[in-house]
Design brief:
Blueprint lengths: L1 H12 L6 H10 L4 H21 L5 H22 L9 E6 L7 H12 L3 E4 L6 H10 L4 E5 L7 H12 L7 E5 L5 H7 L3 E3 L2 H12 L4
Parallel strand pairs: 1-2, 1-3, 3-4, 4-5
Helix pairs in contact: 1-2, 1-3, 2-4, 3-4, 4-5, 5-9
The structure holds CO-5-methoxybenzimidazolylcobamide (B1M).
Length: 214
């Protein structure tokens, strides 16, 4: 199984879209936990892609096709992460902030939250504060989860917190933030309720913020 995990990483790095689904199915059929496929196969491959991009060994088009390959792998894993609970633990609005198109991490967080029994409303990428507030006014969530991968888009997270305050909604709606450049110190600085370093931490945090851990 270890060898196939290495092949999964390789398939993402080398953009082998024709192989990825079969490889992921193979390890799942052999009994590997979906979380292991994500954390030890798919995610490390994207880390490697990031390094290669920084070192100018690959460029945006290659990075994009690797991301597409990873998404194809994630789609195979997704049905296995769905929770069977009937009563949701709370509603989470999830989005990647304005100006930012990175959605792989957000999608993994969403899948894990659903698996843990939350109702997740995915508001997509490049999410403006205005669009988010429109949604908040119509179907009040318990938690807003924001993802940012670019240092330049992180300030959008603070705008969301400020807008909730301005509308008098801050006490009712918790805000959690995450994404590679985000840190606990940043979360605290902008007045968010918490930071998730990865999808597992995001689930723990959502449980705590919604009171579902009590
Ligand atoms: Co871009 N990109 N990218 N990119 N990209 C990064 C982020 C970068 C670090 C690469 C590099 O330089 N090494 C760099 C940012 C530098 C910076 O800001 N300091 C960068 C850049 C520069 C850019 C462009 C500007 C490139 C260009 O056009 N010149 C451009 C920007 C486009 C835009 O957004 N406006 C761009 C474009 C792209 C693609 C479209 C090609 C593609 C994205 C495809 C897609 O997402 N659909 C892409 C990719 C794939 C990457 C890297 C290689 C991988 C990101 C990823 O998917 N990681 C990335 C390098 C890297 O991160 N190593 C890079 C895997 C994913 C599972 O991890 O998203 O961190 P992550 O999510 C984790 C945790 O962070 C956490 O849980 C997840 C699961 O463990 N988490 C949360 C995430 N959100 C959370 C929310 C939570 C809690 C936890 O609560 C709500």
């Amino acid at each position: 199984m270890g060898d196939t995990l290495a092949e999964i990483r390789q398939a993402v790095i080398e953009r082998q879209r024709d192989r990825i689904e079969g490889l992921v199915r193979e390890v799942l059929d052999e009994g590997m936990e979906p979380n292991v496929v994500i954390n030890n196969g798919l995610i490390p491959a994207m880390d490697e892609i990031g390094k290669m991009f920084t070192e100018h060994k690959i460029f945006v088009p290659e990075m994009l096709v690797s991301a597409m390959t990873m998404k194809m792998g994630l789609e195979v894993v997704k049905p296995l992460l769905k929770g069977a609970q009937s009563e949701p633990k709370g509603t989470v609005f999830l989005g990647t902030v304005k100006g930012d198109l990175h959605d792989i991490g957000k999608n993994i967080v969403g899948m894990m939250l659903e698996g843990a029994g939350f109702r997740v409303v995915d508001l997509g990428v490049d999410l403006t504060v205005e669009k988010l507030m429109e949604q908040v006014e119509t179907q009040s969530p318990d938690i807003i989860g924001l993802s940012a991968l670019l240092t330049t888009t992180m300030p959008e997270m603070e705008r969301v917190v400020q807008e909730l305050e301005a509308r008098g909604l801050r006490d009712r709606i918790k805000v959690m933030v995450g994404g590679a450049p985000v840190s606990p110190a940043f979360a605290e600085k902008i007045g968010a309720d918490g930071y998730g370093g990865d999808a597992a931490q995001a689930v723990e945090l959502a449980r705590r913020l919604s009171g579902a851990d009590r």
